[in-house]
Amino acid sequence: MKLLLLMVVLVIPLVDAIQDSLSLTTDQLIYKNGDLIEVSVTPSDEPFTLQYANASYPMQDRVTLEAIYPYNRLTIVDEGNTYDRIIHVKNEDVLPLLFPIFIFGGFNYLFTHYLRNYIGGL
């Protein structure tokens, strides 16, 4: 009985603290450069300042931002607590796409060169 009472006394304030915390959500997790990000915060009864891409945006319930590569962190600071949401903004350049292909081809070339010259295979 004492253990149950102790658990109730310790758990109820913890549940209240979790329910009072903020929740920062977005409509997606992956965006292309220039896509619109819809950010919402709950509870939405007071105004907040959202920080993204070295800029601050006032918001109360929701705000719409443009995704900017390479920025990926949405931040709200409330009473000393920081609430972050990490998103992924894709880089649409061709070079990052071709780089792993060149690395793979280079390793294959070196591997077959090693096999031909030092082991005598192929």
Detailed description of the structure:
The protein has 122 residues and is α+β, with helices and mostly antiparallel strands. It has helices at residues 2-20, 95-119; strands at 23-26, 30-32, 36-42, 48-52, 55-59, 62-66, 73-78, 81-86, 88-90. The strands form 3 sheets. A 4-stranded antiparallel beta sheet has the order 5-4-7-8, with no helix packed on it. Strand 4 and strand 5 form a beta hairpin. The longest helix has 25 residues, at 95-119. The protein is elongated, with a radius of gyration of 25 Å.
List its salient traits.
2 domains; disordered N terminus; alpha+beta; 2 helices; four-stranded antiparallel β-sheet; Immunoglobulin-like; 122 residues; 36% helix; three-stranded antiparallel β-sheet
